[in-house]
Each structure stands twice: as C-alpha cells, then as structure tokens.
Amino acid sequence: MTNGGDALIRSLELEGVEIMFGLPGGAILPVYDPIITSSIRHVLVRHEQGAGHMAQGYAHATGKPGVAIVTSGPAATNMVTPLLDAYMDSVPMVCITGQVAYSAIGTDAFQEADTTGITMSATKHNFLVSDAADIPQTIHEAFHIATTGRPGPVLVDLPKNIVNPADPSSHFEWVEPTAPDLPGYNPTVEPDLDLIREAAAMISAAKRPVLYAGGGILKARGADALRELAELVGIPVVTTLMARGALPDSHELNLGMPGMHGNYTAVMSMQEADLLVALGSRFDDRVTGKLDGFAPDAKIIHVDIDPAELGKVRRADIGIQADVRLAMEALISAIGSTNQADRSAWRSHLSGYQEKFPLVYEDSAPGDALKPQFVLERLRDGSPEDTIVTSGVGQHQMWASQHWNFEHPYTWINSGGLGTMGFSIPAAIGAKAGMPDRTVWAVDGDGCFQMTAQELVTASMERIPIKVALLNNGYLGMVKQWQEMFYDERYSEVYLSPDLPDYKMWAEAMGCHAIRVESPEEVDAAIAEANEVNDRPVVVEFRTDPREKVFPMVAAGATNSELMVDPSQTDKLPGGGH
C-alpha cells in the first residue's frame, strides 16, 4: 500500500523531475513530508508567483517541463499569472496545487478556491483528482499533455484528503501508469507531404521571400533545421521576440527582430515581401501592426503545430499543421537542389536598408546619465557568448533584445505574449537552477524589480548565483515614453524615484553582492566584478537616463509602413520622414 502524498512524489520522480519550485501550506502539507527523502530538489520561494516564473525559466533554458507546487486558495490564485504567461508563450509546465478536502469543496472552506475553474482559460488542461489511486496516471498524463503538441502549462489540483496518510481515502495499491488514454488529444506532428511540395514550389519561385521565424521553432528544438533551410534557399530570416537566437544574429541571412520595436530592415522586409513563410509564429499584433496594412503583397505559407493558429489572424495560402522542426526538415528534402528564383536584387535592397537604418542611440556626453543601450552593449561584450539573458517587460526588454547579440538558441528568456512585469528575476533563478554551469544575467527595470525582487532571497538561500543588471531610470519607462509621445507629455503616475528604495542596500539586505554605477567610466569594471562573483547573487544598479526612448517604434493603430525611427534618421525615410 502507498498513500497519495508518497504517490505524487514517486510519480514526479518517474517523470524525471529533478527540481521543483514551491511553497508549502495547509492543503498541500502532506505532500511536503515525502519531499524530505526524495531525489527531487525543492526550491523554497518567497511568493508563489515566483515559483511559476522559475518553472518557466527552467523550461525555457532546458527544454524540460518546469514544475511548481503550491497550496490552495491564495497560493493557487498567485499562480494564475505564470500559468497564463506559460500558456501564451507555449511553455511546458506542470503545476501541482493543494485543495481543501474533497468533501469540503463548495462549502467556502478555509483557503478554498475553484482552482480548476479559475485556471481553465490559463492552462492547456487541468485536472481535479478525486481518487488517490488516480494520481500516478494523472501525473503521467499531465506531463504528456504539457510536452506534446503545442507545449503549455497543465495544472493538477489535489484535495487534501487524498494525499494525507492519516486519511483512509489516501491509501491504495500502487499501479504503474500506462500510456496516456486521452480521447480527442492526438496532436498532428507529421506534415502533409503534398502541402510540403506545394510550399517548396512556392518558396523556390518567390523573388522577395522572408522566413518569419517564431518561438515555436525553439519549442520544437528546431534551430538547426531553420539554419539549414535558410542557407539552402538563401532567404533572409526575421526572428521574433520569442525566437531570438533561433538563428545566430551574426548570420548573414538574419535581419533581426521585426515588430513594434523591431529594426527597420526586418520590419520593411515583411512589408515588401512577396512571400512570408511563417514558421512557428502566430501573426501577433506586436509583429503585424495594423493588420490590414501588414505585408499587403505577400502570399502566406504558415506552419504551426496548433491548427487553431492557421488562418486565425491572416489567411494562409498554404497552411500546414505539423511540428515545425519536422516540417522544415521535410521542406529541406522537398526543395533539394531545386533552382531558386534570382533574389540578388532583393538581398541588395535589404542590405541598403541595413546600411541606412542601423540601430543607433546618442552617446552620453560628459556628466550625462548612462545610456541604457550602452550598458547593454558593454554587458553583452563583457559576458560569455552563451550567457542566458532574461528580461522583465518594458523598455529594458526591447533594448536587451535589440542590443544583445544572440548567437545561440535558448539563451533569451522573456515574457512575450502576456508581458508580465517582474518576470526576469524568478525566471533567471529557474534558468540558472537548470543550467548551473552557465552565466545567467537578468536584465530588469526598476518597476519590474520592485515586483519580484524578494526572490533574490530565494537565490541567496538556495545558492543560485544569478546576476541582475538593474536599469534604474526612476520611471515606468515604456509608459512614460507613450505619455510623452502620444499624450502631450502629460505624465500620469509613472514616476518611481531613482533613490527610493536604495537598491544597493536592498540587494545587500537580501544577501547579494551589490554595485552601483553612475557613469560610463564605471561600467566595464562593474561588469567584470559581477562576473567574478559566483558564490551568491549579484545586483548591479545602473543609473540610466530617463529621457531615452525605444526606437524604432510602430505606434498603436499604425501600420508597419509608418515605422518611426530614431530622430537622427528621420530625414533618411522615404519622403524625408513626411
């Protein structure tokens, strides 16, 4: 005989779980006793949201499903944000939540919440387990669902009585889980070869094609296939915010990031293309801008594991439901040595854009505040090439994506679809826990930092030595930028103060090595000092210029053809910027 609590931990061990992130409480407490003798490492967080983001960071960095475990009620509701974040960004994750005893469900018992109801739209699937004997099979199916097809978060809600060894209902004879039996869930992963041949012919004939690479390529572990396909056909590639690193930034075919804050060449390549080959991308509004003005002359080949994405935003001329890595490999075989259309004029045209509209910013004058772009470039150049970078959400996220050179896949971790402030620090902890031999930098803004900085206590206690680059401009920077540009400089509730709190003292109080940098001359030495500290977390506060804006930029409601560039480049735009 076994009991539900022991069965849960044994089930997680059978799934190969090595680490999980969580916080105990009443309803889940019986499960925490067998953790003491388990091979699974448990990381004790300071807030349940942190557990979810750590599980996400672990999954992003390793490709393995992240695991979070928390109790019922407010603990479960604190998990909603990371669950929805993982759902929108297709991150494999399994969340275990405690629940009040099965007989008490619906009575408004202490710390009761309708967790499965609340998370139904924030998870790929969720389970409320009523019988302890179902735990092994349910956990096995949860991991299967989270990691197959389009990855995503799965929640398993466990009433306290079925995991409590003191309750007779928790005892049962262990039975090994069997192959998942999930009627209606059978993801299509192999591409239709007739559609692949049609797509191959369309690609070979296109004169102005672009490979539109999305985050699905990384989820499918398809970076090598993307590079092989791009080089075979000689087609330029744009890598979305979620796909940074899928093709090395130094590769001659990589045009960089498209979208609202993408670079001019990447954005205009899509606008002027005659064919977009969308690979694991979903035509997100941050990429398309005003939809009826997006890529007006382009035919569309769309490859996605999720059939709901095909035709959801933009009608595809050829829609292929498949694992994007397998589809790219099939395209490579189908294209073979087929002659490609002459694209020399297209490549030359795009090279002209690259020369005319590089990413630029104004250097700091003596005595000026630090430029955040300069900080990120020095951080990039002073760190190992395979450094894992996480970011929060806002200006610092865009600058990090723009100014870091991503030469390896799975080195850029951020919150794309949901845009969750506070994501960076816990995600970095999860990534470092999963990849302990890699340097992990969390790029954060002062607004984001104040939301989840308490997880640096977790990092200190658990000896997970992440490094934090805090770009402190004293404002909610992206909101301030919008108010300056579109609300006649009427700044409403965006000032945070660069001095309150004292970030250096706060970081030190949480067990971190802390450094403050206020001038360009101090930047390199601070980065070198941070990179030498590997026995505890490091926080480097960079006092940055609050006047800086993120350019290029597509305003809300505008088409991508109305992309605004840095003011120093406006006169180079067609029509002189008018």
Largest sheet: number of strands, sense, barrel closure:
6 strands, parallel
CATH architecture of the largest domain: 3-Layer(aba) Sandwich
What's the tally of helices? 22
SS content category: alpha/beta
CATH superfamily name of the largest domain? Thiamin diphosphate (ThDP)-binding fold, Pyr/PP domains
CATH class of the largest domain: Alpha Beta
The general outline is globular
Q: In whole angstroms, how far apart are the ends?
A: 77 Å
At the fold tier of CATH, the topology name of the largest domain is Rossmann fold
Strand order of the largest sheet: 3-2-4-5-7-6
User: What number is the mean pLDDT?
Assistant: 96
**Helical content band:** 25-40%
- The total domain count is 3
Number of strands: 20
Rg for CA atoms: 25 Å
- Which regions have little confidence, pLDDT < 50, spanning 5+ residues? none
